[in-house]
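Reminder to self: tokens first, then the designed residues, so the page reads top to bottom the way the pipeline ran.
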């Protein structure tokens, strides 16, 4: 089989996201010269993540920016994209978001190449009405794709329920490159920066600060936990549109001094190193990289029982699961963990073993390569 040229199109959002990290990992690890990857960012100029683009270029991937502006004709973006598809002799267009799914599909059809969409999850209940319309429209767009990739079996079942043939939907579980985590990272830099006491117990979460991530309920749980364990501090690592709102909420709960909003923290290994317990309070998820990274770092995990998370967290074995939007239940699980060091150690150990065996980056790359090859093989 000849070399397969793949173009990833993303609406990167101005800081490192799990989508961007997966694209970069695939770009770095995919078998060469059997596959070649190029990257297009279809993004508002003021929101471009230069770090992402520079990282892609450093890996040798041809990288282009198509500025997205509402004032310019929709057709302009499609025309620019079709020119790039022809320039790089692309065989497969691989898209990742609502906007890129639509533009990528039209450009793929105009140029006669195959189209793959990765669906990373929908957040229908926690976004403004306009975004709900976009996501309803997206569900119709992906019906026209040649293939759909999802990061969890939960999401695969949801898409099949929409009437899309099961043979067009493949689960490739999200994965992490454990070599990118410095498991010996010192916690001293982080503790020094935020004036943390060495004796503090630190409970943390990592991710975009937005409504579907459920930080509000973590703060409500924190209030209950702090009443029993006043030395506990909660770390909210990440940035997002409702950070200021959450800070005000923490003040209203009287726990602001025990909550640290770090913003975007570049060295994830350092952030994980300081945590005694990792929490995911999300309302909806597919299979978040943050959970995999925490488990790979040997951290015990408590998460809401949503989406694809039960595919990696087995309640009572590799972590604890709680109902979403339930601060009391989350608090009780945190307190249970804090009061039982043996349970902490046992779950952390089993979770790390599971990530290293079942959710390795090797599996992710191999399954993606096989999918690309099958799409082209069936097309010829």
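Designed residues (380 positions):
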């Amino acid at each position: 089989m000849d070399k397969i040229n793949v173009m990833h199109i993303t609406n990167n959002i101005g800081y490192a996201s799990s989508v961007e990290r997966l694209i970069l990992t695939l770009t770095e690890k995919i078998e060469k010269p059997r596959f070649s990857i190029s990257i297009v960012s279809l993004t508002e100029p003021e929101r471009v993540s230069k770090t992402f683009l520079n990282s892609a270029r450093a890996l040798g991937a041809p990288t282009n920016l198509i500025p997205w502006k509402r004032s310019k004709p929709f057709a302009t973006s499609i025309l620019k994209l079709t020119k790039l598809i022809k320039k790089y002799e692309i065989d497969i267009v691989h898209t990742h978001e609502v906007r890129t799914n639509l533009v990528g599909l039209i450009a793929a059809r105009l140029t006669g190449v195959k189209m793959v969409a990765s669906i990373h999850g929908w957040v229908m209940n926690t976004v403004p009405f306009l975004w709900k319309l976009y996501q309803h429209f997206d569900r119709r767009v992906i019906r026209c794709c040649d293939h759909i990739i999802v990061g969890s079996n939960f999401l695969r079942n949801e898409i099949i329920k929409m009437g899309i043939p099961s043979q067009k939907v493949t689960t490739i579980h999200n994965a992490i490159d454990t070599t990118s985590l410095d498991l010996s990272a010192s916690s001293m830099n982080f503790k020094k920066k935020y004036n943390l006491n060495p004796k503090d117990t630190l409970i943390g979460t990592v991710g975009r600060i937005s409504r579907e991530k459920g930080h509000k309920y973590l703060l409500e749980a924190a209030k209950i936990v702090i009443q029993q364990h006043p030395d506990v501090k909660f770390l909210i690592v990440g940035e997002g549109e409702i950070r200021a709102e959450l800070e005000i909420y923490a003040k209203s709960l009287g726990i602001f001094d025990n909550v640290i909003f770090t913003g975007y923290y570049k060295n994830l290994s350092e952030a994980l190193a300081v945590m005694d317990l990792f929490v995911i309070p999300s309302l909806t998820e597919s299979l978040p990289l943050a959970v995999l990274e925490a488990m790979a770092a040997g951290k015990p995990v408590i998460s809401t029982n949503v989406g694809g998370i039960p595919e990696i967290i087995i309640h009572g074995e590799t972590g604890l699961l709680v109902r979403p939007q339930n601060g009391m239940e989350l608090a009780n699980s945190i307190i249970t963990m804090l009061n039982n060091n043996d349970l902490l150690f046992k779950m952390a150990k089993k979770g790390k073993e599971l990530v290293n065996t079942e959710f390795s980056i090797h599996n992710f790359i191999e399954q993606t390569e096989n999918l690309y090859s099958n799409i082209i093989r069936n097309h010829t």
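Residues 187 and 274 are 5 Å apart (CA to CA).
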